[in-house]
Amino acid sequence: MPELPTTAVAAAASRPVEPPRTQRQLSRVEVADIAVRLFQEHGYEATSTVDIAEAAGVSRSTFFRQFRSKDDVIFADHDDLVARIEDYFAATHPDPWLAVCEAATMVFERFRERLEIVRIRDRVLRDTPVLRDRETVMAIRYERMFASYLRSTVPGVPPLTAIRFAAAVTATHNFVLRRLIRADDNVGPFSLATELAEVRRFFHPDAVASDSEVRSMGDVVVAVFPAATDPAELARAIEERLRTQAPR
C-alpha cells in the first residue's frame, strides 16, 4: 500500500477529531408513545419489553429504570400529570373547590393536546381487559388526590362531602374526555368548564364562576341527590345524566 505524502499525514494529524454523536435520550412519554403504537400494531400481549426497548432505541436496563413493568408504559402521561397536580395543589388557591376543577381541566387539556396518541391508547385499553382495570385504579387515584386536597384546605368540610365532590368531578371529566376521544361528526361541542361549574355549584352553592366558566356558559344540567348518596353511585348517576343530555 503506497504511503501518504508527509504533508497529508501532518494535515490529518492536525485535523480536530469530532466526538461521536450521541442519540438524544427519549423521555418516558416518548418511549410510551412508541409502545402504544406497537400495542396497536401487534397487540398488547404480543409486544414485549424487548420489542419496546428496541423500537425506542434504548437498552432494557434503561427501559426498566423508566418503567417498573410493561403495564406502566401505557399510563406514563398519568404519572406526569399526578406530579403536576401535586405541585399545583402545593400552591395557595383562594377557592379550593375551583382548584380541584382546574386540576381536572389540566388533565383534560393534556390529553386534548395529544389527541392522536390518546385515541390510539383508548383503542388499546378497550381491547385489553387488564389495562381497563388499571385505568379504573388511575381514576380512583385522582379522586383520592382531589378529596385529600379539599379535606386539607377547606376548614370543617365533611370528609364524605369532599369524597363525593372528587367523585363527581372525576366522573364528569371522564365523560367529557370520552366524548372528545370517541367523537364523530354528529357530536356537538361539549364544555368541560360548564359541566364542572355545575358540579361546583351543587356542592358549593355560593361559588362565583371563574372567567373560563363564564365564557363557556351554555346549557347546564342540574342534578339533586339525597345527602346519603354513595360517592360511586353519585358519579355513575351524574355520568348517566350527562349522557342523556348530550347532543346527538
UniProtKB/TrEMBL annotation:
Which SUPFAM superfamilies does the UniProt entry name for this protein? Homeodomain-like (SSF46689)
* Residue numbers spanned by region Disordered: 1-24
Origin species, per record, is Cryobacterium breve
Q: Name one Pfam family in it.
A: TetR_N
Q: Which residues bind DNA?
A: 48-67
**What is this protein's name?**
TetR family transcriptional regulator
Does this UniProt record's set of keywords contain Oxidoreductase? no
Q: Which Gene3D superfamilies match?
A: Tetracycline Repressor, domain 2 (1.10.357.10)
Per the database record, which ranges form the HTH tetR-type domain?
25-85
Q: Does the keyword DNA-binding apply?
A: yes
Record keywords: DNA-binding
